[in-house]
From TrEMBL:
The name this protein goes by in its record: Dihydrolipoyl dehydrogenase
The family this protein is said to belong to: Belongs to the class-I pyridine nucleotide-disulfide oxidoreductase family.
SUPFAM superfamilies registered for this protein in UniProt: FAD/NAD(P)-binding domain, FAD/NAD-linked reductases, dimerisation (C-terminal) domain
Lineage top rank: taxon: Bacteria
InterPro entries: FAD/NAD-bd_sf, FAD/NAD-binding_dom, FAD/NAD-linked_Rdtase_dimer_sf, Pyr_nuc-diS_OxRdtase, Pyr_nucl-diS_OxRdtase_dimer
Keywords: FAD, Flavoprotein, Oxidoreductase
Domain FAD/NAD(P)-binding: 7-322
Domain Pyridine nucleotide-disulphide oxidoreductase dimerisation: 348-454
Alphabetized Gene3D superfamilies for the sequence: 3.30.390.30, FAD/NAD(P)-binding domain
GO MF, any single term: dihydrolipoyl dehydrogenase (NADH) activity
Native organism: Massilia aerilata
The keyword Oxidoreductase belongs to this UniProt entry's keyword annotation: yes
Length: 478
């Protein structure tokens, strides 16, 4: 068996792992990166980029359906599923190619192919061909789609989101299990492309929303287009030819439905099982993830750091890159541990309307021991630019701190919310007050005027010392 001694071993070559490796090298460390699966990152290969390609095709199809409302009439719409998926795969492969070019630039001696397993606090075995002794270790093993026990070993019709982007054609029908970001994005996109889709959720959640008022609004808006089934329990499934018979229990009654595919989109699970993590002697939390400091990525006071989806803190690409930078820097200069840059939280579901949360969530602000906070809101139903575009759906709720007037965060479903979310997350990170935000320019007519309406409502409630909101009677704003 080959033996290798390094300063830093990085397990995983996804977004977090690549950044961690480069950051450790920049600190002057002798580093090696270990990867057993395909290079290319989850985002580029089976995540954010191919899903947006599918969504873009769906938006084009939807605009044809919407055109008559503007007085514009096209010919008969035809969706070529083979051409749609060919473009998804072609452009996806292009994005993956950019990542592979970066990997190719890493010296061969710094890349180990194979799956790593801990044999001790400082030792790893890679596929039984190499033993690595590392002074410090970064775990960046990513995550995998969560597999539901009742859908195990059913047959080829039960899939995860990873397999969607290898389709040669659009399917006839799909059952989507989960109303998180992935489930809603893919469910809506496939629906708009003419696929018969039903979406099932165990509870009543919608994407990452925690604000009950925004959540109710989002559930109603999404149900206008999607066949949504909340409070549904998966009883079981059977492969029958080229279809899956899926049995669901809802309101105490069971029913069986047939779909070409059952798509499991009930979240992702950190890849920390089966790597011998028990050899490290670290305290473990949920899903077997080591407890770590989110400012430094250090596990306890050890020489081990964890970054990206593997730590399950904020499993989105920008956070994975930041995690990797912090973990790699600290592993490279250990024991000189320093807090790294943590940005204001920002999560976006690219449904239409977009679903966005940023800064402190409603749930976080309502946690025991937290001081009371003020709320402002606006509905996009009567917002000028939104009505012009026939996209007048959704709601924004903004949160502010009593006394200081500081802007704390927001949750929303609304038109162009991906852009609004960026503006508001910048405000959170800059720690500006609501009054300072209202001093900023607002052009006319733009969707952002709705933000101003919500901020004015928030400023008034901060001044009054109460939120003055009845969650069951939300009046549309302008």
């Amino acid at each position: 068996m080959q033996k290798l001694k390094v300063d830093v071993a990085v397990i995983g070559a996804g977004t977090a792992g690549l950044v961690a490796y480069r950051s450790a090298k920049a600190q002057g460390a002798r580093a090696v990166m270990i990867e057993g699966g395909p290079y290319g990152t989850t985002c580029a290969r089976v995540g954010c980029m191919p899903s947006k390609l599918l969504i873009a095709a769906a938006e084009a199809a939807h605009m044809i359906d919407l055109a008559p409302a503007f007085g514009v009439h096209a010919g008969e719409k035809r969706v070529d599923g083979v051409a749609v998926m060919e473009r998804v795969r072609r452009e996806r492969d292009r994005f993956v190619g950019f990542v592979l070019e970066g990997v190719d630039n890493i010296p061969d001696q710094d890349k180990l192919r194979g799956y790593a397993r801990f044999t001790g606090p400082h030792t790893l075995v890679v596929d039984d061909h190499t033993e690595v002794e590392a002074a410090r270790i970064v775990i960046a093993t990513g995550s995998a789609p969560t597999q539901l026990p009742k859908l195990q070993d059913v047959g080829p019709g039960v899939i995860t989101s990873d397999e969607v982007f290898y389709w040669q054609d659009l399917p006839r029908s799909v059952a989507v299990i989960g109303t998180g970001v992935i489930g809603l994005e893919l469910g809506q996109a496939l629906t708009r492309l003419g696929v018969r889709v039903s979406v099932f959720a165990r509870g009543g959640s919608v994407a990452q929303l925690t604000d009950p008022v925004v959540l109710r609004n989002a559930a109603r808006v999404m149900a206008e287009e999607l066949d949504l089934h909340f409070q549904s329990e998966i009883v079981g499934a059977v492969q029958d030819g080229d279809e899956v018979v899926l049995t669901i229990r809802q309101n105490g009654e069971e029913r069986a439905m047939r779909f070409q595919y059952v798509l499991q989109a009930a979240g992702r699970t950190p890849n920390v099982a089966g790597i011998g993590i028990e050899q490290l002697g670290l305290a473990l939390g949920a899903n077997g993830v080591p407890l770590f400091d989110s400012r430094t990525m250090q596990c306890g006071t050890s020489h081990v750091f964890i970054a990206g989806d593997a730590n399950n803190e904020r499993p989105v690409l920008p956070e994975a890159a930041d995690h990797g930078k912090i973990a790699g820097d600290n592993a490279g200069r250990y024991p000189d541990i320093r807090p790294g840059l943590r940005r204001a939280p920002l999560t976006i579901a690219f449904t239409e309307p977009n679903i966005v949360s940023l800064g402190a969530s409603y749930k976080q602000l309502c946690a025991p021991g937290k001081p009371k906070f003020a709320i402002g809101q606006v509905s996009f139903e009567n917002q000028g630019r939104s009505r012009v575009m026939l996209q007048n759906k959704g709601m924004l709720r903004v949160y502010g701190e009593y006394g200081t007037g500081r802007f704390l965060g927001a949750e929303m479903i609304g038109p162009r919310a991906e852009h609004i979310g960026h503006l508001l997350s910048w405000a959170v990170q800059c720690r500006v007050t609501v009054e300072q935000m209202l001093e900023m320019p607002f052009y006319h007519p733009v969707v952002e005027e709705g933000v101003r309406t919500a901020l004015r409502d928030l400023a008034a409630n901060i001044a009054r010392g109460c939120s003055d909101i009845d969650p069951d009677e939300v009046e549309p704003g302008t």
